[in-house]
């Protein structure tokens, strides 16, 4: 008599959550309110051209309401770490076009984050001496192709170079649209160039771009306005990280900075404002929500260097929605779970994150080989029932979409 193995237990379906409600973002209709946060993964070629494996990675995660692709540099001197993507020449556009095409074929929607590293860079990474608001070096070292090295003192940007950098952001935004992205996110957070202009500790200028808050927010406003003029404000988001001290940041007067910056941006008709490590009980978060008239994406604070909660940040996201956020961005949970939306919707367990080194080491390991729930359950069923028919391999990427860093900053929540 043949014994039939029991099928895996059905997953408990949790109560309905607003995370899975549809939403609108400008002209985009989002099927849910979960956003894949931009995460450096160091899978580009040395010259910043996106590689074919990136098309697979992002298309696997196309069920996110919105994907914000990893930071791409708008010019050569803005490169931060090895194998970071870029968006300042035709080869970059062609590489990204493979990625956006794969995501569209899988039913997804994408923005591209544009980031200039400022002092977070090294000549061995970019071929250039880093530039910054002031010649204040990064206090910690930085990863390079030959290993960890001390940071170099950046060169202070001249006024002409500031204006040229603003123009580079606008040109990069145009290239992003040409590459098939629905819009761009201006990265004004996490200790990179725009954030360096905002902070007292990194901006010691005495001209129109330094000193009082109104001067220190000038560069951010000029970049955002130039990008919006180039591609339309409805295609532009801005990411901020109030109070974040990563990359040696010392803002000094956080509340004043973001009251002024958000107030100036509020009437620009932008696609969204993205707040990093948001806390629903924070007075500043509530103040930002009240001042911002449009879509607010909140990235929950899930801790630095600690394991993810078992739900990947779902409850934290729901608290932020209740506090007024419109969309919730998650990082590591999407990294380890290509089908994160489906898992959270049914209360299924999440894949654990693998060794941190695999996040940035290059190749498929820890990148495109995280299993979907269907594949995991299929393997369990096949092991439990040897006489059952083989379970077909399940791919989250349509066949047509399968085109052929070491970072000092942990990925977002």
From TrEMBL:
NADH:flavin oxidoreductase/NADH oxidase N-terminal domain span: 19-350
A UniProt-annotated Pfam family: Oxidored_FMN
SUPFAM superfamilies hit by this protein: FMN-linked oxidoreductases
Sections of the chain in a coiled coil: none
Source species of the chain: Streptomyces monticola
Protein name as catalogued: Alkene reductase
Cross-referenced InterPro entries: Aldolase_TIM, OxRdtase_FMN_N, Oye-like
UniProt-listed Gene3D superfamilies: Aldolase class I
């Amino acid at each position: 008599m043949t014994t039939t193995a029991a099928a895996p237990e059905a997953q408990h379906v949790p109560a309905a959550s607003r995370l899975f409600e549809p939403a609108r973002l400008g002209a985009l209709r989002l099927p849910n309110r979960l956003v894949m946060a931009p995460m450096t993964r160091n899978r580009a070629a040395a010259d910043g051209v996106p590689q074919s494996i990136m098309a697979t990675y992002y298309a696997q995660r196309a069920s996110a309401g919105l994907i914000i692709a990893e930071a791409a540099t708008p010019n050569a001197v803005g490169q931060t770490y090895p194998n970071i993507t870029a968006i300042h020449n035709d080869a970059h556009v062609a590489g990204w076009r493979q990625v956006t095409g794969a995501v569209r074929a899988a039913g997804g929607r994408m923005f591209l984050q544009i980031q200039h590293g400022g002092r977070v860079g090294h000549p061995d990474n970019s071929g250039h001496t880093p530039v910054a608001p002031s010649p204040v070096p990064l206090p910690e070292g930085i990863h390079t192709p030959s290993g960890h090295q001390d940071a170099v003192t950046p060169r202070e940007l001249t006024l002409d170079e500031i204006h040229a950098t603003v123009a580079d952001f606008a040109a990069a935004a145009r290239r992003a649209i040409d590459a098939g992205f629905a819009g761009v996110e201006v990265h004004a957070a996490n200790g990179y160039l725009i954030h360096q202009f905002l902070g007292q500790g990194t901006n010691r200028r005495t001209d129109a771009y330094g000193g009082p808050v109104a001067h220190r927010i000038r560069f951010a406003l000029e970049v955002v306005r130039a990008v919006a003029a180039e591609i339309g404000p409805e295609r532009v988001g801005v990411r901020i990280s109030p109070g974040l001290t990563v990359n040696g940041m010392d803002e000094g007067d956080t509340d004043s900075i973001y009251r002024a910056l958000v107030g100036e941006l509020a009437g620009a008709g932008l696609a969204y404002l993205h707040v990093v490590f948001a806390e629903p009980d924070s007075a500043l978060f509530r103040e930002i929500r009240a001042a911002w008239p449009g879509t607010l994406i909140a990235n929950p604070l899930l801790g630095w260097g600690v394991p993810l909660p078992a739900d990947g940040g779902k409850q934290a996201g729901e608290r932020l929605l209740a506090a007024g956020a419109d969309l919730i961005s998650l990082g590591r949970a999407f990294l380890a779970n290509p089908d994160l939306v489906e898992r959270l919707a049914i209360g299924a367990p999440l894949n654990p994150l693998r060794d941190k080194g695999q996040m940035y080491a290059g190749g498929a390991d820890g990148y495109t080989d995280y299993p979907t729930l269907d594949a995991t359950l299929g393997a369990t069923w096949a092991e439990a029932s040897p006489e059952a028919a083989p379970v077909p391999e399940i791919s989250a990427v349509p066949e047509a979409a399968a085109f052929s860093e070491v970072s000092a900053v942990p990925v977002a929540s």
